[in-house]
């Protein structure tokens, strides 16, 4: 399991009229990149109401899922196209458990926090009508990571799973948010959930799915 690339914003580009400028245009970096509590050095966030912050400091996407999209769309999915900071290889991203902790390289430790929810900026970036719905239906969301230990990372660094919590809610399960028994399990496990995810889990459990 390893990093293929580490990506930060190349330049701010126009998004949909509703959003203005966007920092979704990420490109691979050479050498080591510092990782702080709010993300990668040289990166930025425009829509701070919906993106960024400690719980969404770093966005990772699996090369395996990018290859699947490449086959589906008949086009290349270069690293950074989806706005990801990290392109991984051999890492269980969709099947990572909420609260799981990874070490990247020798220093950086991150925690799996939430799936990425597609938005109109992402659809504008892809130029595909109905992209938000299509991306959601595929359940290959990538994952937001919280930085627990700062340091530097670079392409080629190994990714190691340090710990996995005692529940069954993966990134994929949370993205679909329909499995009541599993969501009850994550609520009962005591794992620290983002408030939005906790509210979703409680809502699904309450309606008995």
Describe this structure in words.
InterPro entries: Benzoxazolinone_Detox_Enz, MoCF_Sase_C, Pyrv_Knase-like_insert_dom_sf. With 209 residues, the protein is an alpha+beta fold. The chain has one domain (2-175): Beta Barrel (M1 Pyruvate Kinase, Domain 3), CATH 2.40.33. The protein has six helices and 13 strands. The strands form three sheets. It has an eight-stranded mixed beta sheet. Strands 6-5-12 form a three-stranded antiparallel beta sheet, with no helix packed on it.
Topology:
Blueprint: E1 2-9, E2 13-14, E3 21-22, E4 26-28, E5 33-36, E6 39-40, E7 58-62, H1 63-73, E8 86-89, E9 101-104, E10 108-115, H2 120-126, H3 131-138, E11 143-149, E12 151-153, E13 159-163, H4 171-176, H5 180-189, H6 195-206
Parallel strand pairs: 7-8
Antiparallel strand pairs: 1-4, 1-8, 2-3, 5-6, 5-12, 7-11, 9-10, 9-13, 10-11
Helix pairs in contact: 5-6
Order of helices and strands: EEEEEEEHEEEHHEEEHHH
Runs in which pLDDT lies below 50 for 5 or more consecutive residues are none
Question: What is the number of independent domains?
Answer: 1
- CATH topology tier name: M1 Pyruvate Kinase, Domain 3
- In CATH, the architecture is Beta Barrel
C-alpha Rg, in Å? 16 Å
Helix content: 25-40%
- The side-by-side strand order for the widest beta sheet comes to 4-1-8-7-11-10-9-13
The dominant shape is: globular
CATH class: Mainly Beta
| Biggest β-sheet strands, sense, barrel | 8 strands, mixed
For the secondary structure, the number of strands is: 13
- State the separation between the terminal residues, measured CA to CA: 35 Å
Q: Count of DSSP helices? A: 6
Mean pLDDT: 92
Structural class: alpha+beta
Pfam families: MOSC
Protein name: MOSC domain-containing protein YiiM
Organism: Kribbella italica
InterPro entries: Benzoxazolinone_Detox_Enz, MoCF_Sase_C, Pyrv_Knase-like_insert_dom_sf
